[in-house]
Amino acid sequence: MASPFERKTASTSNRARQPGGGPSTRAVHGGENRPLPHHSLTHPIVQTATYTFDDSADLRSFMEARMWGLHEGRVDYGRYGNPTVEAVEAKIAQREGGEAAVLFSSGMAAITTSLLSLLSAGQHLIVTEEAYRRTREFCLSFLRRYGIECSVVPASDVAAVEAAMQPNTKVLFTESPTNPYLRIVDLPSLVKVASRNGVTTMVDSTLATPVNQRPLEFGVDLVVHSATKYLGGHNDLLAGVVVGSPSLVALVRQNLWVCGAISDPQTAYLLHRGLKTLALRVRQQNETAQRVAGFLEAHPRVRRVWYPGLPSHPDHHVARGQMSGFGGVVSLELEADLDGTSRFVDALEIPIIAPSFGGLESFIEQPALMSYFELSTEERLAVGIQDSLVRLSCGVEDPQDLIEDLARALERF
Ligand SMILES: *Cc1c(COP(=O)(O)O)cnc(C)c1O
User: Fold this and answer.
1) Would the pTM count as exceeding 0.85?
2) Contact 409, 344 (CB under 8 A)
3) What is the β-pairing status of strands 352-353 and 169-175?
4) Is 337 in contact with 377 (CB distance < 8 Å)?
5) What is the 74 CA–ligand 1 centroid distance (Å)?
6) Which of 149, 170, 171, 265 has a Cα-to-Cα distance from 59 of 20 to 30 A?
7) In the prediction, which pLDDT does 23 show?
8) Domain ranges of the chain
9) What is the per-residue pLDDT across 202-223, written as a single tens digit (0 to 9) for each?
10) How many whole angstroms separate alpha carbon 40 and alpha carbon 44?
């Protein structure tokens, strides 16, 4: 049997490895550019703010090469590039099935810089409902101050997306799965509508990870992740990433150099390390969440469970068509009021109360208290958030322990 690796000889090894094989093989070996400096197994953390030149002739030849875009292999200043950051970009691009990627200091930095790159005053963008709260805020109030109008449409209604198209629409931004109801957007249909209208598509695929869904394969133009969540996977860093074609990513990168929300080599190292276990972690989290969702759905004190891997989820069939796993987040509504729901959360021993998700530790949150605290019950209902809603992000603990913990808390609250 042929090796899944395209082995490179030492003289031709100056290219990232593109191994075939399964997601775990690719997570470990993909995007690696061996031999690394000093024949190190891991990527060195190149902790420098700037880069040096031997003499004026060296500087001149760099500047000339850069004018022609031929300066590959080095940069002059830390905001324009870093080898440790580039190693992560290569690995993520490879995992997502994209040709290029650019790393940011946070998911929001990735989203805002990308949208600022794609849109100008007088243009229009469409964002689907239930987008991340700060993304909505950026699109609806921040961009509006610069003369960019935004329409919000239901995530799973492709006809509504088509109806919202205007002659000046430039970008269609969506999330899939959404948070907290894990609605799944029919990406192939959305891409069809967007390309008919000459609109650039951007998908926040944070909840899916490239293990479960690769939007570029459906023709989406740009994929964005909060790498703070599953990609980092250890709840110890904040980062964001945008993946797509070399030309779109280069455009976004130009604006990163101006806006300046770069990531740093220490964070990039941690993210690179975390990515090697991405498939391992996500497959475990998929399996745990599926079992937990099934258990919760059968429990009499649970009113409703939202998990795309359950046939009862409104987008189950769409999810099956475009995802190979359904993720580690499960949302549920209890037969309880605001305080009763808090008592359930407090009765749990394993999941930790914290915002965020996607790490090794299971997290639990009551959105009414965490993300929507300043709203009244009525205002929360208007945006679709029940007081009895709970979001559980499964970590990598033993699934049976989590289920027993949930069972105890459901008896007790
Ligand atoms: C967390 C999150 C973001 C924001 O990412 P940060 O890394 O916190 O800036 C954006 N989109 C989704 C879906 C998220 O979950």
Assistant:
1) yes
2) yes
3) unpaired
4) no
5) 31
6) 265
7) 83
8) 278-412
9) 999 999 999 999 999 999 999 9
10) 7
Q: Which CATH architecture group holds 278-412?
A: Alpha-Beta Complex (3.90)
What are 61-103's pLDDT values in tens digits? 999 998 888 877 789 999 999 999 999 999 999 999 999 999 9
| Residues 344, 413: Cα–Cα separation, whole Å | 5
45: its two tokens: 């953390």
pLDDT at 312 over 50: yes
Is 303 tagged catalytic? Answer: no
Q: Which of 95, 229, 281, 391 is catalytic?
A: 229
b/e burial code for range 368-406 (CB count within 10 A of at least 16 → b): beebbeeeeeeebeeeebbbbbbbbbbbbbebeebbebb
Residue 103 phi/psi, 5° resolution? -95, 145
Q: Which of 204, 221, 264, 387 is catalytic?
A: 204
Amino acid at 242: V
Ligand 1 contacts CB of residue 322 (under 6 A): no
Question: Using only C-alpha atoms, what is the Rg of the chain?
Answer: 22
* More reliable by pLDDT, 23 or 203: 203
Q: Under 8 Å CB-to-CB from 120, ≥6 apart: which residues?
A: 148, 170
Secondary structure (3-state) at 23: helix
| Whether residue 146 lies in the annotated active site | no
Does residue 206 line the site of ligand 1, with CB under 6 A?
yes
Helix (H, G, I), strand (E, B) or coil at 58: helix
Instruction: Give the count of beta carbons closer than 10 Å to the beta carbon of residue 317.
Output: 12
91 catalytic? Reply is: no
Q: What number does the ligand 1 atom closest to the CA of 239 have?
A: 7
With 50 as the cut, is the pLDDT of residue 13 above it?
no
Q: Is the CB of 130 under 6 A from ligand 1?
A: no
Q: Is 107 in the pocket of ligand 1 (CB under 6 A)?
A: yes
